[in-house]
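User: Need the bound-state model for flavin-adenine dinucleotide:
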Amino acid sequence: MRLADGTVVQGELLLGADGLKSVICQQINGNIPATYTGDAAWRITVPVERLPENFMEQVMMVWMGPGRHVVAYYLRAGALLNFVGLVETEEVSEESWTARFPWERFKADFAGWHVDVQTIIDAADQEGCYRWSLHYRPTIRNWITRRAALLGDAVHPTLPYLAQGACMAIEDGAVLTRALDQADSIVDALQLYQRNRVDRTVRIVNQSTANRTLFHLRTVDEIRASFANRDEGADRNAWLYSYNPLTVELV
Ligand SMILES: Cc1cc2nc3c(=O)[nH]c(=O)nc-3n(C[C@H](O)[C@H](O)[C@H](O)COP(=O)(O)OP(=O)(O)OC[C@H]3O[C@@H](n4cnc5c(N)ncnc54)[C@H](O)[C@@H]3O)c2cc1C
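Assistant: Bound-state model below.
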């Protein structure tokens, strides 16, 4: 493989784990079109010392309102609160972890929301408010060549509406490792890997896309009606959270 600086490196297997703008995926599958969803994701993390004591239970919290929603959960064993606020906007910006936007706009986007949402936004580092423009991409079923494999966002970029993008990348890594151990050749291992990962990741990506509609209903009545007969926890436990990439049978 020739790198951008001209260096040539050789190996038995190339892993394309280069994220949603993957050049390796582009070489395997050509250009994958991206279409703006109409949504942007505000992202901040807040050290818990900046929040009132026992501010929020150690569970994932979701707030929903017309055309937008908020997800908050703790990271690093409760030391940091992660906050993602999804808003509909016609203003398309970058798909980037480092695109900063003014705190005042963040605050304005959630004006009138629940007091806990205000507390988190008020505790944010005002220079550290990030906004990511979310795009749809078609699902990809071709993950491998004889000597290369794709992994993570490089091959299954997803909307974050099921919070599974990084989880899928970790699962890919575990299954690929096992496939390389089990199969007699790299070619067989890559086929085993692809066979065992594509359907699950396509399902997750499609479910995440469907959740965009569910999470952005227009009225409280619509939201109530949609969730009245659903049990999100039970549904996800049945197929999503119960999957173990270290023990699932590879067929
Ligand atoms: C707003 C938002 C909220 C999210 N929330 C969650 C969540 O709650 N739970 C969850 O599981 N997931 C979540 N995700 C998704 C998660 O962040 C991604 O799925 C995950 O980061 C993908 O990991 P990756 O290693 O495949 O790609 P990346 O994290 O994108 O890493 C790719 C790496 O490759 C490097 N790279 C790229 N091109 C090259 C190159 N040519 N040469 C060398 N290096 C290169 C990049 O610099 C980067 O370090 C969220 C995403 C967004 C946008």
